[in-house]
Amino acid sequence: MTTLLPAVFAELEPYAPTWCLATEAERWRQRHSSTMDELTRFYDAFFPRLEQAIEYCNTFALDDLPAEVANLVRLIYSLVIVAMAIEIFQQPRTVDAADAILDRVREPTP
Amino acid sequence: MASWPKPTEGSWTQHYPDLGTAPVSFDDCVSPEFYELEREAIFMRAWLNVGRVEQVPRVGSYFTKNVEVANASIIVVRDADGAVRAFHNVCRHRGNRLMWNDFPGEETEGFCRQFVCKYHGWRYGLDGALTFIQQESEFFDVDKAMNGLAPVHCDVWNGFIFVYLGEEPRQELREFLGPMITALDEYPFDKLSEHYDFVAHNNSNWKLFADAFQEYYHVPSLHPQQIPPAVRRPNMSVECAHFQIDGPHRVVSTAGARRWTLPPEAMYPIERATRSGLVGPWETPDLGPLPAGLNPGGVQPWGISNFQIFPNVEILIYGGWYLVYRYWPKSPGTHRFEATLGFHPARNVRERVEHEVAAVVFKEFALQDAGMLGGTQAALETRVVDEFPLSDQELLVRHFHAEVAAWVEHYRRDRIAVKA
């Protein structure tokens, strides 16, 4: 099986195919099409290692990340967007956002 | 919570006596007739910010901007001399929309050496001059020198590109912006060039969304989740430290505690882990000396200054980063909202994650603001209530609607004078 993440984060491989997403638009869709159980499993698995993951990625040049490190950065971004649902709203959708939609149409990469 | 001194008149509102303290009508947000007047009275008579110079980084860089309320599509381009120019996005031959990509109604951007019309291949230089007519000999005395792109008045202030859609600007841009805004001349927006852009199509009048962002009174009620449950209290009050009005423009400043001085339970775990969140990165690189105009009330500890440039632009400056909001009317009950977050370019993954967290949190709470809009619009349209009380904390809402009304009235009077 091909791996997506650096070996030291191998325990997170089960989440990588779902959450290594390049754009906020994809991460937003994935959060909203997930159940709270799914979001919680990902959050509980990754959050304890978040600071380690940032430290690890930080040792590489931002404009020249190896593919597996870029994937880990994307996984960090996904954790950030999932944390909103877990820590703040206790549901995948923003509380009281009603029918509002706010699209992120441009963002830096990675 | 700290109590901030009010002006000697007893309130911020009474410090501006022309505004009065009476309840206000929001009929200006539901009346189709008023919307028709706003087109000419405001959007053809005020300088409008359409973007930033970072969007046209080199000669030939361009973008198009739709200004539906003024019935305009504009091309903004950096010309061969390095100047920023604007033209109406209309081919002089048969009126085709000149620059577009997949759909003519959608905005586009890119880089070109000249503008080429998709329809019959007419070409224009970056200065708008008509340079090529396909099968020119078949035409009848078309003078190329007289058929350049229709120019739009365009000027740049501190990297913000403004256009003026009326015939002759009644004021130069700097004069229009006035001393309170131009006191930000030296603010280094150009150093904050890492941009996150957002767009929303909201189901309310444009002014209702602007209102949501020019007062903080709503924050504890609409955004209780901004504060973690462990430190959330019922009936929390909000008091802004400084309000100021200069001509048609406004600013409000709030105080802000340094985030790392707060007890841990005052922040969510994701904020502590990333050292970023609700008010952005906890620490940002030194931008050098900042102009006094950034904090005109001298608020300490300073948190944010939120400048509203008439009619439809807002610049919110936090320590080390900023946001721009624009509200573009599309109909009496709809508008397009644009937001840009500007950070210094991240130097490493940690800084980029800090920016990502700020951008994610911004969206969550802006969605709560936007989520109300359809309900407010529908409720106002019932016209069951026609006067609404505004508090001292909502001074800038009061001023905004008064200013819009004044511009419309001024236009009406000018029109009557012309007819007479």
Describe the structure.
The complex is a heterodimer of chains A (110) and B (420). By secondary structure, chain A is mostly helical. Chain A has one domain (13-89). Chain A contains 5 helices and 1 strand. Chain A has helices spanning 16-19, 24-32, 36-46, 50-58, 67-89, and one strand at 103-106. In chain A, helix 3 (36-46) crosses helix 5 and helix 4 (50-58) runs antiparallel to helix 5 (67-89). Chain A starts with 15 loop residues before the first helix and ends with a strand. With 420 residues, chain B is of the alpha+beta class. Chain B folds into 2 domains: 17-44 and 178-419, Alpha-Beta Complex (Naphthalene 1,2-dioxygenase Alpha Subunit, Chain A, domain 1); 48-164, Rieske Iron-sulfur Protein. Chain B is 23% helix and 24% strand. A 7-stranded antiparallel beta sheet of chain B has the order 1-10-9-4-3-2-5. In chain B, a hairpin with a 2-residue loop joins strand 12 and strand 13. In chain B, helix 1 crosses helix 7. Chain B starts with 31 loop residues before the first helix and ends with a helix. Classes of the chains: A mainly alpha (110), B alpha+beta (420). Chains A and B meet through helix 4, helix 5 and strand 1 of A and strand 11, helix 5 and helix 6 of B.
